[in-house]
TrEMBL record:
SUPFAM superfamilies: FAD/NAD(P)-binding domain (SSF51905). This is FAD dependent oxidoreductase domain-containing protein. Transmembrane segments: none annotated. It comes from Hypholoma sublateritium (strain FD-334 SS-4). It comes from the Eukaryota.
Length: 436
């Protein structure tokens, strides 16, 4: 593949984490014909996975590649251009195995963090874990728990970070056009190479190179032209929020992010608006619509304004039960709201950063698998490397759409379930109901 020249047109479809970061890195390398289009009427898209009040920024991975890349991302997050987007609260990693037991994901993450020089403190039991929290915070006893605090991490205001990078892309001369939903990839009849796209409104964008970065919408939106079923699956992940008082916010704000790799549960410190978010890093839910589709597709506030944010009642109960195992007092509060956050998952949770087979002019940049946002400052560099044919052979194989799946992601809990619309939460379910 001959890389595009610096003045050739590059079209990026999707203004989320992958797409905007790619545009930024290409512009920084001197490319002048970079255009980003997005289906949403405004960007960041209100239902994009990368647009939220917070995302975990952790180096704690069982795969050393991601640990190293996360350290590079954190170094960038500390640059003044990000303002107060990044908060280094520390990340308390739970799920370490008992002494003499089989190595767990948390154990492997600890070894990688320690080997890379992270500031970590190990806790052998629940009593020791209390030291990770301020003295005034009432926590559970953490029975049969072990883990470690990684001080070199925390959380980022996801929507703010994405908005800042969108502004930076435009400042560097990139073009961002919202409200353009792609309906078809245009291919040259003779070669079969992608040469542009057509949108629902009839607009055509021609390009020498297309980067497809449409997140969880990818499998369904391009089902007729691309074979992605083996590698891409849209799943909904369950999130809830709690509104704290100003006094409560001041008490809990100094806490670390808590991430339990055994249950998948995680909870953030409250943000500046005293909103505390909790979620489960799990296999998630699929949704196949009301028809006969065999491809899972996101169900969001955009597709269903009345109930698009609701989650299964069982998941709501699971969130409350897990919160009780960390902050018992908060588990008795009313939930402010819920959200199904949609990921594009690969079977092994490695990303797809790959040229599409037999079409060198189409690059896939997707399958974030619920752990891409923390890399917003740097992930576009990998895609820019692929554009320029500079991505290492090892990473080209790791992120290939045609790779063989040899392992599963052990950082996520449970099995994928089909979303049952009759079991979604109601406003009444957000209330705390003590067991009589």
């Amino acid at each position: 593949m001959i890389p595009p020249t610096k003045d050739e047109s590059i079209l990026i479809i999707g203004a989320g984490c992958f797409g905007v970061s790619t545009a930024y890195h290409l512009l920084r390398r001197g490319y002048t014909g970079v255009t980003v289009i997005d289906r949403a009427a405004s960007v960041p898209a209100p239902d994009a996975a990368s647009n939220d009040i917070n995302r975990i920024v952790r180096t704690s991975y069982a795969d050393k590649f991601y640990s190293e890349l996360a350290r590079a991302a954190i170094a960038s997050w500390k640059d003044e251009k990000w303002g107060d987007t990044y908060h280094e609260s520390g990340v308390l990693v739970l799920g370490a195995s008992a002494a003499g037991g089989a190595s767990s994901y948390a154990d492997e993450a600890y070894e990688n963090d320690r080997a890379l020089g992270a500031s970590v403190q190990e806790f052998a039991d629940g009593a020791a874990l209390r030291a990770a929290f301020p003295a005034q915070v009432h926590t559970a006893q953490f029975e049969e728990c072990a883990g470690y605090l990684n001080r070199d991490g925390g959380w980022a205001n996801a929507g703010q970070g994405l908005a800042l990078l969108i502004d930076e892309v435009q400042t560097l001369g990139g073009t961002i056009i919202p409200g353009k939903n792609v309906s078809k990839i245009i291919r040259a009849p003779a070669s079969g190479r992608s040469i542009g796209v057509q949108c629902d409104d009839g607009t055509v964008f021609n390009a020498s190179l297309i980067v497809l970065a449409t997140g969880s919408w990818t499998p369904y939106a391009f089902r007729e032209q691309l074979d992605l079923g083996r590698m891409c699956l849209a799943t909904g992940q369950c999130i809830a929020t709690i509104q704290l008082s100003a006094e409560e916010g001041d008490i809990y704000r100094a806490c670390p992010v808590v991430l339990d790799f055994k249950s998948g549960f995680y909870v953030f410190p409250p943000n500046k608006d005293n909103i505390l978010k909790l979620a489960i890093h799990a296999a998630g839910y699929t949704y196949f619509g009301e028809g006969n589709s065999t491809i899972s597709t996101p169900r969001t506030i955009t597709t269903d304004p009345s109930r698009g944010l609701h989650i299964p009642k069982a998941a709501l109960q699971e969130l409350r039960a897990n919160l009780k195992n960390v902050y018992p007092d908060l588990a008795e509060k009313t939930f402010l709201g819920t959200r199904l956050c949609w990921y594009n998952d690969s079977p092994d949770s490695d990303w797809v950063i790959s040229r599409y087979p037999k079409d060198d002019s189409l690059i896939l940049a997707t399958a974030g698998s619920g752990h891409a946002y923390k890399f917003l400052p740097v992930i576009g560099g990998l895609i820019a490397d692929l554009v320029e044919d500079k991505l290492s052979a090892q990473l080209t194989a790791k992120f290939s759409i045609e790779r063989k799946i040899t392992q599963v992601d052990t950082s996520r809990s449970g099995e994928v379930q089909a979303l049952d619309l009759t079991e979604l939460n109601t406003p009444e379910d957000l209330q705390f109901r003590p067991i009589s």
